[in-house]
Amino acid sequence: MNTVVIGGGIAGLTAAYRLRTRLGPEARITLVEQAGRLGGKLRTVDLAGTPTDVGAEAFVLRNPAAVELVEELGLTDRLIHPRRAAATVRAAGRTVPLPRRTFLGVPADPEEVRPVLSDAAAERVAAESSLPPLEITDDAPVADVLADRFGRELVDRLVEPLLGGVYAGRADRLGLRATMPALVDALGPAGGSLTAAAARVLGEPAAADKPVFGALRGGMAVLVDELAHRARADTRLGRPVRELRRGTDGWRLEIGSPGRAEVLHADAVVLAVPPPAARRLLTDAVPAAAAAYAGIEVGSMAVVSMVLPDGVRLPDTSGVLLAVGERHADGTPFTAKAFTHTSVKWGGAPVRVRASIGRVGDTELLRRDDADLLDAVRADLRELAGVDEAPIEATVTRWGGGLPQYGVGHTASVSAIERAVAEVPGLAVAGAALRGVGIPACVDSARAAADRVTRHLLAHAEGR
Description:
This protein is an alpha+beta fold.
């Protein structure tokens, strides 16, 4: 049994590991990754002698898939949770605590969001539960639905900053059904009130005291390395897949650079790559899936990571989100959309800060060179946190074109992909473009892909 996994991010690595556990040591598993390293959007670098995540730094615990994988791999002793330091949001020129009981900014209790809003906006939020019941029949932009029920101020000051952190997208372009499916599902039982639906999703207030996120001591490279070790795949790095074709006896892949391409043959393929690559590879093999992938836009962002001198005092908060339109005292816009006070949030030395920059459409901002971005972020930090010391070491990491946008109609696109792939024996898809961008959702999609491929391979073997 010969399987090729295309894509060495968390979804591809998890799929390769699952295939190994299901198919045993004799199965041949080849992992092909066009970059020169594994991990995809999980990347840990050494910054001033400290392992530093410059991509995804944590996973949510509401979906237990990631923490279950960590436990299965024997990495429980590496699992850490944030310290109890409150997050904040910068809105209307003030930095205030981020309301705790909201679902991506949608409040379970209107009083929670009052400190972030003007009096008029707070009263409008409080009145949402008395509006006629909301029914969502068609997908719509998040901003349209929430602004209609709560007012635009809530969207700009809470929803947009939180969604921007997850998707690097904008509330005016992200679809409600794909980004907030739990909220949509809870709307009917909640009587058509978004406030009541958020309360149902979040559960009892006591649940707010439980950890929301987990991370790994030593960085996400710990997870990447362990998955690669356990998968025991024949790994080909720096080898883009140029062509994927289905034949009568399986799959033919051409990998590598023009003129020096290598041909691989496989009984099954798992495709775990961003939408543009998936579209290109499936154009001939599964045109309906390729067309659906073409409808998924991708975004870019950058992360600035800094280690500051000992003795620098950061605010005793986990970080700060910036509302839409926030500006410096001199009127210039902030460059970062969020800061994480890493050493405060996760504990330990040295003093560390991380800034996130860019959403879909911020083309000019992301074209600025690294030195310019670092200077701009330092100016932001000076005004927001009173920190003026130069970093001991800093790095700018750019994530270009690999962040899928869950736009209006995204769930329909994913359903079309899954229907088309289901008709093709020996093919499965996985990754952040499908039903969640976080690590747990990618793990779930990888497990489902490995299960599908395993069933095909075992049935194929029995039929020989």
